[in-house]
Sequence to fold (169 residues):
Amino acid sequence: MIVPRRLGAFAFAVLAGLLLAACGASEPQPGAREQPGTPAKTSGSGAAAREGTAVRIRIGEQTVPVTVFDTPTGRALLDRLPLTLSFSDHNGAEKTSPLPQPLPMDGMPEGDDPQPADLGYYAPWNNLVLYYADVPYWNGIARIGHIDGDMSAIASHAGDFTATVEKAA
Fold:
């Protein structure tokens, strides 16, 4: 009676595998990519928003070109340039600096899922954000531009640094 016992164990393993596969593939799980209860991901960086104004970030002797999107938040940032800001690392994925005054969020999505080389604004903390690694969707994030230059000038700073954000000449 060894054959039926092995056959039963095999059938149980196949059935368990099928049940696990059926449960895992139907819906995305909340977790690292989205907060539970958040709206669908939207982007402030659509085709219309990709048109923007050239600015540059000067970090010491290095200059990094950036495009600030034509959005209400992006235009408000442009109106305040030049700005000299103190950046620090946040979670090994982004450099953040508080702004002197909040930027408006009128017409911007409730949150976003920025990609590496995005310029962002995190409204709850009033921070300008330079993303150099992937971060998940988060409420309060607005993509307001794109870093067009070499990200190593930003990502390589292990500690705090000062940078000047100004309109390109």
In short: Strands lie at 52-59, 62-69, 83-90, 94-98, 111-112, 118-122, 127-131, 138-139, 141-147, 161-167. DSSP finds four helices and ten strands in the chain. The first strand starts at residue 52 and ends at 59. The two ends are 86 Å apart (CA to CA).
